[in-house]
Amino acid sequence: MTIVKNITTDQSALLMFKAHVIDPHSVLANNWSISYPLCNWVGVSCGARHRRVRVLNLSNIGLQGTIPPYLGNLSFLVYLNFGQNNLYGHLPNELGQLHRLKSFGLEDNKFSGSFPSWIGMLSKLQILSLRNNSFTGPIPWSFYNISSLKWINLGFNSLSGTLPNDMCNRLPKLQEIYLHSNKLFGQIPSSLSHCIDLRRLWMSDNKFTGRLRENIGNLSKLRDLYTANNHLQ
Questions:
Q1: What DSSP string runs through 72-105?
Q2: InterPro entries this protein is in (predicted)?
Q3: Domains of the chain (ranges plus CATH)?
Q4: Cys-Cys with 131: which of 107, 151, 173, 225 at CB 3.0–4.6 Å?
Q5: The pTM is what?
Q6: Could you tell me the end-to-end alpha-carbon distance of the chain, in angstroms, rounded to an integer?
Q7: 66/152 Cα distance (integer angstroms)
Q8: Residue-wise pLDDT tens digits, 120-171
């Protein structure tokens, strides 16, 4: 059975989200209502062609609570930003259904649990920021299948494990990498030299080893490099 999704689907998903979180500053309280056109709701933008929700930007408005699975129904979503709120808990697997997503920002919240393996299903993702949360465990190998990634910020979490040696063969478009202040370890990927557009590389405060300088010598666009408090040569 095929489920038809339309703008009513989007409206229902967002109203369920509103009901699921605390909005202490009443940013959504009155505006997010069936009395107003969905595409005029605070933080919401729709596409001109299909009139489906493409942007959901609710950053820095003090939201509290967890993210419900209903947001996985926003199948035309391209940009999602919940940064700088007080959201917590695990991320629902249903967000892996957002196959059009290009930018995903959850920085400066209180999310926890292991790094979501379903992020590897977001094949068009270009920007990912999970900075300053409490994610744990290794970065799943499926993550390195997102060849479109340009900008990743995973700093200030409790991620552990190693990076694949062929990381930049698999993610060749990377321009900015922020992995600082985690519990990552092991050899620096020798493939770093293949991230030819790399501009910023922050890997400080981990337990990396290896010969970094040999791997970044030809990166002519590299401007910011922070590798303190590792075991690098």
A1: GG-TT--EEE--SSEEEEPPPGGGGG-TT--EEE
A2: DNA_repair-toleration (IPR053211), Leu-rich_rpt (IPR001611), LRR_dom_sf (IPR032675), LRR_N_plant-typ (IPR013210)
A3: 7-226 (3.80.10.10)
A4: 107
A5: 0.94
A6: 58
A7: 23
A8: 999 999 999 999 999 999 999 999 999 999 999 999 999 999 999 999 999 9
